[in-house]
Amino acid sequence: MTYVSLDVAHLALAATLILINGAVSWAFALGLGRTLFINATRMTIQLALIGFVLNWIFEQTSPLWTVALALIMVLVAGYEIVSRLSRRPKGIEVYLLGSGTLLVVGTFATVFTVAGLIGPDPWYQPRYVLPVLGMVLGNAMTGIALTASTLLETAARERPAIEARLSLGADRFTAMAATLRLALKTGLMPILNAMAASGVVSLPGMMTGQILAGLDPIEATKYQIMIMFVIAGATALGVVIAGYATVLLITDARHRLRLDRLHPPSKV
Amino acid sequence: MECKAAVLRVDKLKIANLPPLSFEVADGECMGIEGRSGSGKTRLARALADLEPAHGHIFVNGAERLETPPTEWRRLVRYVSAEPGWWSDTAREAFPVAAASQKALQRLLASLDIAPGLLDRPVSLLSTGERQRLALARALIDDPPVLILDEPTSALDPRTTALVEELLRYRLLSGCSILLISHDRAQIDRLSDLRLQLAPLHEAEAGGAGAS
Predict the structure, then answer these.
(1) How confident is the model over B117-157, as pLDDT tens digits?
(2) Which residue has the higher pLDDT, B18 or B78?
(3) Mean pLDDT, to the nearest integer, of A84-93?
(4) Does CATH number 3.40.50.300 belong to domain B8-85+143-201?
(5) Residues of A in Cβ contact (< 8 Å) with B75
(6) Alpha-carbon distance A105 to A97, whole Å?
(7) Can you say how many angstroms the Cα of residue A246 is from the centroid of all Cα atoms in its chain?
(8) Rounded to the nearest 5°, which phi and psi values hold at B114?
(9) Burial environment of residue A197 by CB neighbours within 10 A (0 to 12, 13 to 18, 19 or more)
(10) pLDDT value of position B96
């Protein structure tokens, strides 16, 4: 292994680079000094904490702790989806939509990858489960948030067209078919772009990490290719589930478009 | 151009701050709906087509709104909004392909003085009046028994307005019932057998429960 360990002195030295941000904020009177300080501190504390948490979980023999952390990750990502919506639905269902979709997609993709493809013994080791879940959630979250956001905004904008179709006797899925298609397409764009750019414009994070940790680049690449496919599949599944769920959320059993279930547009 | 005779009966329908509405429109009758802007005319029309929730009962030939599947209900009670939306590039895609025979479609378009070529022109390039007449044609092609028209001639000149009115009269003769929202008093006088005057919101009972 060519792995080089860092100690606190290295980190302190790296932290001096944040002074560049401070200098920029000061020179251009951006007034970001306070935010910069708080966010840099937050980042350090959050990462240090998760390091200790992961360290502790890795030492536990019971998979219950892994499940517990996985659930927290799903809930936080679900909350993040909702906070990215510019037209937010009222009520608690939208949180269920975000977290529920991620739970289905994350469980499926993680079990498939770790148990089915990587196959460590036992397969449910947190060292494999949690990073894979994290990558799946991060990407699926982006796709789902884009899909739901596009669908809600487009439905509000295209209300006359959607209601014209309903008036002519179409059911809610037919009336919203064009809207749903646009939303699905938008939600899938980031992962499609990521696949095209990876290896040329960007070196994906997991592969970079494995290489830094001393793994042979060819081996690291194999892992990365696998994870890209898994992420793409998981995102597609998540986007479709979330798309249909969002249609159900803003229509009712009488096939009406219920824009009254949305909060007024927030200023972004 | 035949539609089944239909009787529309509305029983204690609650729209916004208006007092509960009850009325009946028999087959072959046209009811004019009058009231200032904001008096709830459009909301009444939307509630009748079950496009927005409203308490109360609505019957067509004895079938209650909530006991009829919504897609079926909107084939019985056809609402044409004042600003009809389009979801396809050309108007032709908005007409059901199988349901209507091409002959019936051509007859309908001719009666509204719409050149058949307009069907294949991008909707965005059509004039407001052309779009309005096409939206009416699209709503009439499957012969719905109850028609709810929200300002159907607002963008039309006197000649095409007369064509639309002629078409509506023909529908009434064949047993349709029509609810007509119009700012044009004379038009309501020409077509309606009965009329419904909606009191503006501030004149309605104070503190009435507003639908969310």
Answers:
(1) 999 999 999 999 999 999 999 999 989 999 999 999 999 99
(2) B78
(3) 92
(4) yes
(5) 169
(6) 12
(7) 17
(8) -105, 120
(9) exposed
(10) 74
Of A164, A255, A260, the CB nearest to B81: A164
Contacts of B53 in chain A (CB under 8 A): 252, 254, 256
Determine whether the interchain pair B212/A260 forms a contact, defined as Cβ–Cβ distance below 8 Å.
yes
Which position has the token pair 């009435």?
B208
Strands B57-60 and B8-13: antiparallel
The Cα A163–Cα A155 span in angstroms is 10
Determine the distance in angstroms separating the CA of B79 from the nearest CA of chain A, rounded to an integer.
6
Q: What are phi and psi of A108, to 5 degrees?
A: -60, -50
Residue of B nearest to A262 (CA): B212
Q: How far apart are CA B99 and CA B143, in angstroms?
A: 11
Q: Is the pLDDT of residue A125 over 80?
A: yes
Closest alpha carbon to A33 in A23, A43, A41? A23
Rounded Cα distance, B206 and B212, in Å:
17
Burial class (CB in 10 A: 0-12, 13-18, 19+), A249: buried
pLDDT in tens, A47-83: 999 999 999 999 998 899 999 999 999 999 999 999 9
> What's the half-sphere exposure (Cβ side, CA atoms, 13 Å) at A100?
13
Phi, psi of A14 (to 5 degrees): -60, -35
What are the structural domain ranges in chain B?
8-85+143-201
What are the domain boundaries of chain A? 1-59, 62-261
Structure tokens at B189: 């006088």
d(CA B137, CA B111): 10
CB A249 within 8 A of CB A96: no
Report the run of H or E that residue B33 belongs to, with start and end: strand B30-34
Flag if B85 and A158 touch (Cβ within 8 Å): yes
Handedness of CA B96, B98, B102, B103 (dihedral sign): negative
d(CA B13, CA B32): 17
Residue of B66, B73, B74, B150 to mutate, testing the A interface (most A Cβ within 10 Å of its Cβ): B74
Whether residue A21 is predicted with pLDDT greater than 60 in this model: the reply is: yes
pTM to 2 decimal places: 0.88
Q: For position B6, what pLDDT does the model report? A: 84
Note whether B139 and B168 are within 8 A (CB): no
d(CA B181, CA B178): 10
Q: Which residue has the tokens 């509405």?
A: B21
ipTM associated with this complex: 0.90
The pLDDT value given to residue A144:
97
Q: Determine contact, residues A135/A72, Cβ cutoff 8 Å.
A: no
